[in-house]
Structures are given as C-alpha cells and as structure tokens.
C-alpha cells in the first residue's frame, strides 16, 4: 500500500510530517539493525532538547543516521541546517562567519573543532517511543537548510531550501526510482549527506517516502559490497562516476542491485554500459543542481536525452536555460545549454555557457576536451580548464592537470593533438599524482589553480 504524504492546513499555513509513514516503518539501518520511525523520532526529540538557542548550525555529522537525527532536531527547533561545500575547517569557518550566531554540531570528537562545536549523543534505547498520532509536523514554508555550491566554477554560493520545497523535489525522485525498484527500497550511498545530491537521495527520501537508508558511507569496494549485503533487497546504490569506475575495475562482486543512481559529474556512456554489464542493474543518472535540486534523469547506457520530472518545464535561453519546477518559488537560470524534444518533456544537453570556448574564430567546449583527455590510454584522471588571466593578445589560456603514471607530458600532448584543434591544446599541461577532488568527486576551481601554481613553479 502506498503511503501518501498529506499536507495539513492549519492556522499559520500548510504543515508536512517530519517523517512519513507509520511508527514501525524502518527509516535507517545501523549496526546491523533497522531503526523504525518511532525510535528515530525519539532520538530527534532528545537531541533537539539539548540544542542551544541559535538561528542555524553547520551539520558536520559523518554517520548518516546521526546526520538525519541532527538535521531533524534542528528543524524541530526552528533552526537552519548549514551545509558547507566540504567539511574542511576553512570551508566550515567561512560558512560560520557568514551566519553570525550559528554553531557547529556533529557526533564525533573533532580536533581541532570549530568554535562552539557541540557533540550530539542520544541513548541506545529509545526514550519515550512515539505512536502514530504524535508524529511531528513542520511548516511547509520553513527554511530548513542552506546548501552551498561546490565552488567548481567559482566561490561557493548559498541556496535556501524549505521543508515544502524538499517535499516537492522528492516526489520526482521517488516516482522515478519506484518505477524501477518498487515503492519500498533500501539505499546505500557513497556520497556525503551535506552535498545536495546526498541530501536528496539519502536524507530527504527516507524522511518523505517508504525508502530506508544505511548509516554508513562506504568508500572501498569491499566496504560497499559489505554494506549492501547488510540491507535487504531491493537495494539502490547512490554513487558518483569516480567511485563507480573504482567499483567496475575492482575484482569484487556486489549483492543483487535494483539500480544505481549517479550524479555530481557527467557519466561516460562507456562506464555506464560497463557497470550494467558487470553488476546486472540499470544505471540512472540524475540531473539537477544545488540551486534547483534534481529535476530530470536518464538511463545513460541507452539514452542520450534526459526525461523531465512531472511539473518541470525548461525554457532555453541564449546563455543557458530557465528552469521551472514544483520545488522552486520562481524560475532559476542555469548555465546549461539544452535543446528540447518530445513536446518539451525531454532534452539533450549541449554544454554549459561557462564551458564554451572561442579562440581564433574556432569553437570548442571544455566538456568535450575533458572527454578526449580521459579517452587517452594510460590517463587515469584529468581535467582541462580555462585560466582567469589573458595572454598578451587577450586570450584566456587553457590548462590541464593529468594523472598518468606511465606517460610523460609530451606524449599526452601529442595524443591530444590527434583529436583536437591545436588552438585548444592545454598550455600548460602538467602531470600530477592525484587531483584535488572533494567528497563527491568534484574539483573546486581554487584548488586546481593552487595545484597548477605548485607544479608549474
């Protein structure tokens, strides 16, 4: 039987449940056991009572169940979850400074810890287990999170999220995944809950649907397999292209999967096809941003076009695309260039206006240059990007950082010359041991520029 999330109209506006479903529904898996909604809510109330009075807090919990508890405890107290682009001390300090009066909380002992850090704990047994008729509700218009962009294209920017907005965006994700895995499935995620992709797939979804999530964030292939084996089928693995490549190349089997879900970076078609052959499950890539949340998906191994979620409309613009979606109070402009098909219900991505290059009257895209770099045999990882400063004739140079232990820089440049116009050859092109990818596989631009300066000096 499908669980329906009813909007309750009360004085002061519509309200939505803090967690959906009956008290006995499993919300999360941790330490080999399922945690039901009643126990979860008792933990939330326990932690909420211990929080200081403040407008907002940086949620640094690494354990996904602890994050869920802290997230909802803040919501109950009317405080906003601040989600920095990473948990690096500098990133956390910058977000705290941007929100005076805020604090940080987490489940671990941190050394060093942010100023005013609060370590949360809750009892092993469920205090005051709750029944169905006392489940908490939250105003739909309450601001519950401010998510910061990754900084891959510049300085991280804040994006406000309401409880009703999360509910609206979740309807599209659940509808798409339920058609593949059924209404009740179990998520294992390798991405952090602080990232908006991880937030949607491993925090919001277990709260607003019959989905449950494992508390762990497994990294190594063997850990991924063991974590998947600890939850019952149907299983859905939420992952990134970088992590998926490691899984495909590892000599390890996974328990049967209903589906993979991927985001944060373009999924190479060849990798999607290899993953489906290797593990026998469909791979669905989702499309969205911190600004919009997810609004489309595709099965990358078979589809070039993306299918929009219900209620979403795109309006192509000369310099990007305007997105209308149920979770947005007003349309949001993205830098993605698209063409629409099938009465506007499907689209094909043509690139981003920030990726388009024009040098000496010739055009190319950074996305295409990156694909050609990664296609070179022996290149394990790499990135092509445009520098900020112009040369003496006013052209912004293109640079590349490449991980290729068995190749030299000259042979990499020669291989690139075979597939791209010489005006777009990266100069400089530098070999490095590893790229500064963050927890979701993205590459903050500031770190790329810093690394290029080190290897070029």
From TrEMBL:
Residues 133-307 form the AMP-dependent synthetase/ligase domain. The keyword Ligase applies. Coiled coil: none annotated. Keywords: Ligase. It comes from the Bacteria. One of its GO terms (molecular function) is ligase activity. SUPFAM superfamilies: Acetyl-CoA synthetase-like (SSF56801). PANTHER family: LONG-CHAIN-FATTY-ACID--COA LIGASE. This is Acyl-coenzyme A synthetase/AMP-(Fatty) acid ligase. It comes from Luteibacter rhizovicinus.
């Amino acid at each position: 039987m499908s669980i329906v999330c009813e909007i309750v109209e009360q004085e002061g506006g519509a309200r939505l449940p803090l967690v959906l479903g009956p008290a006995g529904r499993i919300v999360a898996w941790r330490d080999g056991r399922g945690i039901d909604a009643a126990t979860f809510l008792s933990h939330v109330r326990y932690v909420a009572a211990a929080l200081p009075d403040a407008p907002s807090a940086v949620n640094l919990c690494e354990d996904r169940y602890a994050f869920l508890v802290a997230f909802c405890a803040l919501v109950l107290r009317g405080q906003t979850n601040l989600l920095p682009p990473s948990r690096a001390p500098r990133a956390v300090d910058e977000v705290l400074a941007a929100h005076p009066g805020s604090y940080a909380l987490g489940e671990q002992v941190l050394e060093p810890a942010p100023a005013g850090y609060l370590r949360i704990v809750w009892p092993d047994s469920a205090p005051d287990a709750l029944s169905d008729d006392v489940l908490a509700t939250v105003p739909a218009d309450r601001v519950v999170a401010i998510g910061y962009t990754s900084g891959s294209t510049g300085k991280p920017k804040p994006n406000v999220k309401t409880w009703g907005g999360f509910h609206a965006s979740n309807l599209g994700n659940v509808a798409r995944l339920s058609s593949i895995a059924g209404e009740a499935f179990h998520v294992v995620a390798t991405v952090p809950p602080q990232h908006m992709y991880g937030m949607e797939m491993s925090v919001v979804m277990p709260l607003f649907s019959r989905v449950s999530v494992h508390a762990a964030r497994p990294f190594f292939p063997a850990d991924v397999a063991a974590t998947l084996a600890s939850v019952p089928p149907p299983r859905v693995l939420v992952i990134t292209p970088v992590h998926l490549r490691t899984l495909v190349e590892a000599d390890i089997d996974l328990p049967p999967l209903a589906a993979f879900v991927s985001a944060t970076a373009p999924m190479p078609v060849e990798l999607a096809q290899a993953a489906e052959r290797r593990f026998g499950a469909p791979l669905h890539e989702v499309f969205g941003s911190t600004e919009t949340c997810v609004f489309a998906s595709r099965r990358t191994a078979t589809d070039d076009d993306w299918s929009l979620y219900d209620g979403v409309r795109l309006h192509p613009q000369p310099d990007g695309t305007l997105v209308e979606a149920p979770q947005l109070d007003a349309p949001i402009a993205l830098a993605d260039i698209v063409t629409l098909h099938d009465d506007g219900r499907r689209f094909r991505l043509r690139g981003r206006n920030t990726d388009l290059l024009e040098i000496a009257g010739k055009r190319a895209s950074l996305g295409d240059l990156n694909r050609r770099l990664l296609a070179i045999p022996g290149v394990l990882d790499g990135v092509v990007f445009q520098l900020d400063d112009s040369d003496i004739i006013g052209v912004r140079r293109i640079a590349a950082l490449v991980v290729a232990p068995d190749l030299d820089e000259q042979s990499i440049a020669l291989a690139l010359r075979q597939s791209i116009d010489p005006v777009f050859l990266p100069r400089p092109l530098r070999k490095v041991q590893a790229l500064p990818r963050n927890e979701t596989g993205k590459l903050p631009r500031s770190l790329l520029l810093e690394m290029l300066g080190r290897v070029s000096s």
